[in-house]
Design goal:
alpha+beta, 4 domains, 19 helices, 8 strands, three-stranded antiparallel sheet, five-stranded antiparallel sheet, binds heme C
Length: about 475
């Protein structure tokens, strides 16, 4: 029979005798109710503030566990000297061999077992929640607020805003798990000590998404057929003329059920292995491409007149890599637009009213200036637009203030969603490898200068990738055919 009153008295005495235990007891008793309520609220999803999770799991949880450790070690090790003497082997033996006696030692052992078990349960529950918390988008994207702000904002505006950061950035398996947690730890230290690079370097090493993670959701081998791509643009003229570029994109397929791979996703077919060698860490300068087909036939394309940068310079940020999704889709979610595209998007959604004369041209001028901070940019953009319309269209500046105010808000947003002065991210800091802006992207390989020894070049015909149906004009005719 366990006499709980006795037990409690012994505990209380044990605790009271040791200052360490008292400290531990006070700590746990004070934290426990808060922790319980907070964790329940968090599990129910009542409070969404990212700092809340941090306080519960990274501050209160560990303090609570520390309190319990103090409590137990106080009882065991820090008792007054007379008691320490009591814990000799002989004493223990004597106590245990006395049958039917409910000795002090047994009570203590029972008590400690109870405390240890309760602690273990609490620790397991909290470690699990804490682990889930470190995997959450709130922790990755919002906690390190200023550091991750650009990634988080671009992510939220992207088609992947419902995919959590870890789904892309952490591969499956224990190796990735430890790698990512170690890398996370390093990042937290860097954030705390303010030693991280601005902007954050890309490609990122330990957290680079792997092909398998994309393929959890996307199956390029199942893609088929061409796809209509439509880009809406606004000209920098008085009427902000709305024009369109329509293309039939040869998305193709990675090949399935006996069907051959073709088109753009031909690269990711299991039949073709493409690897490439590059000279710079940004993988902009590709100088050699190797293609191995299913039958083992090998083609090596080299840039005309290129030297072997890797052997020449002993690396220098270069390397070799097997091509996968990220060599084209390096911006599936952190999508930074060009100033033109950012404004076109706002004009299309009417966040910037297209009826305002010359707004495209003036907004473009305002957002492409250099600003020291987001705050200064907001003010600068507002001042410039206000002044320009006051001088050139006084009727709008005074008579139609809401229209101008709306245009200013939309223009500021176009800037704030893509430029982050605090992280040194300006227009074009991160390149997108989809397409061929500035001879980058596809044209890193698909240019006339890549040849095999036999003189074969890589595909450069426009039509092998897309068929331009309309370029910078109204595409109504094309769209009418497509909808019929
Ligand atoms: C759809 C997949 C996906 C999701 C979801 C995602 N990322 Fe990324 N992220 C990428 C890819 C791809 C890159 C570029 C990798 C490269 O080139 O090495 C990247 C790059 C980064 C970089 C390096 C800087 C840069 O822009 O290249 C950071 C930091 C980052 N991600 C943080 C996050 C955070 C924080 C979240 C969640 C808010 C997140 N990512 C969600 C795919 C994703
Ligand atoms: C958890 C599921 C999930 C994962 C993982 C994922 N995606 Fe997606 N992806 C989506 C969803 C959902 C959409 C939006 C589909 C839509 O809007 O029609 C999407 C859209 C896309 C699009 C089309 C974007 C557009 O503008 O239409 C591309 C390209 C893409 N994903 C590439 C990737 C790449 C590359 C990766 C790996 C780094 C990846 N995705 C990982 C779910 C995922
Ligand atoms: C050679 C470059 C390249 C590679 C490699 C590549 N893609 Fe694509 N992908 C494209 C292009 C180009 C498009 C169409 C244009 C666009 O989406 O902007 C596209 C379109 C897509 C889309 C949207 C399809 C649609 O119908 O809207 C998804 C999803 C996608 N790719 C996923 C993947 C995944 C997953 C991988 C890796 C297994 C991959 N891609 C590998 C270039 C590539
Ligand atoms: C290796 C494949 C490839 C080749 C070759 C190629 N393109 Fe493209 N092109 C693309 C892809 C991919 C995109 C854009 C996809 C996106 O933005 O999502 C694109 C986009 C474009 C756009 C739209 C740009 C915009 O944003 O308005 C134009 C115009 C264009 N290409 C013209 C050409 C012309 C002209 C040629 C021939 C000289 C050519 N391309 C050759 C792959 C190719
Ligand atoms: C790392 C180099 C590399 C990059 C980057 C690259 N490709 Fe390719 N691509 C190849 C090689 C190698 C071939 C096979 C030789 C050839 O047909 O030119 C190929 C072939 C193709 C083909 C012909 C496929 C077929 O059916 O035979 C298309 C279409 C294509 N690429 C489109 C693109 C597009 C679009 C992009 C950019 C989004 C791109 N490629 C980026 C290396 C690359």
């Amino acid at each position: 029979m366990v006499n709980f009153r006795e037990l409690f008295k012994v505990v209380a005495k044990g605790i009271a005798r040791s200052k360490v235990s008292i400290a531990g007891a006070v700590m746990t008793t004070l934290i426990f109710p808060f922790l319980l309520v907070a964790a329940l609220l968090d599990m129910q999803g009542v409070i969404k503030n990212p700092y809340f999770g941090f306080i519960i799991y990274m501050v209160m949880g560990p303090l609570f566990v520390f309190g319990i450790i103090l409590l137990i070690s106080g009882i065991l090790f820090f008792k007054s000297s007379e008691d320490i003497g009591a814990y000799t082997f002989e004493y223990l033996k004597e106590q245990f061999t006395m049958p039917g006696r409910y000795s002090r030692v047994r009570r203590l052992i029972l008590l400690i077992t109870v405390i240890v078990n309760v602690t273990l349960i609490v620790v397991v529950i909290f470690s699990y929640s804490a682990f889930r918390y470190t995997e959450s988008t709130a922790f990755c994207g919002q906690f390190c607020h200023s550091v991750m702000e650009p990634e988080y904002i671009t992510y939220q505006n992207s088609p992947h805003s419902r995919v959590s950061c870890v789904e892309c950035h952490i591969g499956e398996g224990a190796k990735w798990f430890t790698r990512s947690k170690m890398s996370g730890l390093r990042q937290m230290v860097a954030a705390a000590l303010d030693t991280y690079s601005r902007p954050i370097q890309t490609p990122i090493g330990a957290l680079r998404p792997v092909r398998k993670t994309c393929e959890e959701c996307h199956r390029p081998e199942k893609f088929h057929g061409d796809k209509l791509y439509l880009k809406n643009k606004f000209r920098p003229d008085e009427k902000n003329s709305h024009v369109q570029t329509a293309m039939l994109m040869k998305v193709g397929s990675g090949g399935y059920q006996g069907q051959r791979a073709y088109g753009i996703h031909w690269h990711v077919s299991p039949d073709n292995t493409i690897s490439y060698r590059y000279a710079d860490s940004g993988r902009q300068d590709i100088f050699e491409v190797k293609l191995v087909r299913a039958n083992g036939q090998e083609s090596i394309y080299r840039r005309k007149g290129s030297i072997d940068h890797l052997n020449q310079q002993g690396g220098g940020g270069g390397g070799e890599r097997v091509m996968d999704c990220m060599d084209c889709h390096n911006r599936p979610t952190h999508i930074y637009l060009s100033p033109d595209e950012a404004l076109d998007q706002k004009l299309l959604s009417n966040e910037i009213p297209p009826e305002l004369p010359f707004i495209k041209r003036q907004a473009l001028e305002a957002i492409t200036r250099q600003y020291e901070s987001t705050e200064k940019a907001k003010n600068g953009i507002a001042m410039q637009l206000m002044n320009w319309y006051r001088v050139n269209y006084p009727a709008i500046a005074t008579g139609n203030e809401t229209l101008l105010a709306k245009a200013i808000r939309g223009t500021q947003r176009a800037y704030m969603e893509n430029v982050f002065p605090s992280m040194n991210i300006t227009w074009g800091t991160y390149r997108n490898f989809i397409g061929h802006k500035d001879q980058s992207g596809c044209f890193r390989c698909h240019s006339g200068s890549m040849r095999t020894a036999a003189g074969e070049t890589m595909t450069t015909e426009c039509d092998s990738c897309h068929i331009l149906l309309a370029e910078n004009r109204s595409a109504q005719d094309v769209l009418r055919i497509c909808s019929e």
